[in-house]
Amino acid sequence: MHKDLNLIRAKGAFIIDMDGVIYHGNRLLKGAAEFVAWLQKNEKKFLFLTNSSERSPVELSQKLARLGIQVGPEHFYTSALATAAFLASQRPGGSAFAIGEPGLINALYAVGYTMNNVNPDYVVVGESRSYNLETLEKAVKLVLAGARLIGTNPDMTGPTEAGIVPATGALIAPIELSTGRKAYFVGKPNPLMMRSALRALGATREMTAIIGDRMDTDMIAGVETEIETVLVLSGVTQPGDIDQFAYSPRHVLEGVFEIPE
Questions:
Q1: Structure pTM?
Q2: Contacting residues for 95 by C-beta, under 8 A, at least 6 apart
Q3: Is residue 19 annotated as part of the catalytic site, yes or no?
Q4: Is 243 one of the annotated active-site residues of the chain?
Q5: Alpha carbon distance 18, 73 (integer Å)
Q6: What is the homologous superfamily of the domain 5-51+188-258 according to CATH?
Q7: Which of 4, 19, 155, 243 is catalytic?
Q8: DSSP one-letter code for 215
Q9: Mean pLDDT of all residues in the chain?
Q10: N or C, fewer C-beta in 10 Å, the chain?
């Protein structure tokens, strides 16, 4: 497994995935606190970039604080924020039928969107605990009536303490299959999300590395935006999975605990 720790440490900015990199559910992963302390001590620019749309940056900041890591909300960017920004740029002041958690709903409200279950401009799907057959039927009906279908991210699964669970890509698939419409996904690996992250960081791609646990979102996002790619094996991807992809990460680590000197 190739890795050049000196090259990684020399980077001035880091885009870091959360699930499977920093924590699993409510369990901190080995060396995560030391890694964040190293970033802060060396005055690195860093942004936690998550495809999860469940929580707001304030909630993510509080979640890390509960796990013993103090990081302000300005260090977080989610697929919910990216999705809301995209919709606001496409159709300012529009309306949406949203299937998702407060992080997504609040992001939509914050850009001036309203909730509409009659004739929305968009049907927006993120991770959802309240997903059921009724919401699914409603979404299908609205898409068939002309609403555009948007997914906060294409992840089929996500890691939790209890194991792998279905994520947005899996929840939106029945709507795609029932309507014959393809969803547009805003989160990683969409370059839109990566450009938003670099803007939020105030960093160039040359000075930045992306650290993630997924080949199909984090690593492809890094490859396509020409950012140094660091795969950690503490989440979804196993060593045997890497060769199934046509592209490779530049570095493969057991976890972020390897990075601090």
A1: 0.91
A2: 113, 114, 115, 116, 119, 120, 121, 122
A3: yes
A4: no
A5: 14
A6: HAD superfamily/HAD-like (3.40.50.1000)
A7: 19
A8: I
A9: 95
A10: C
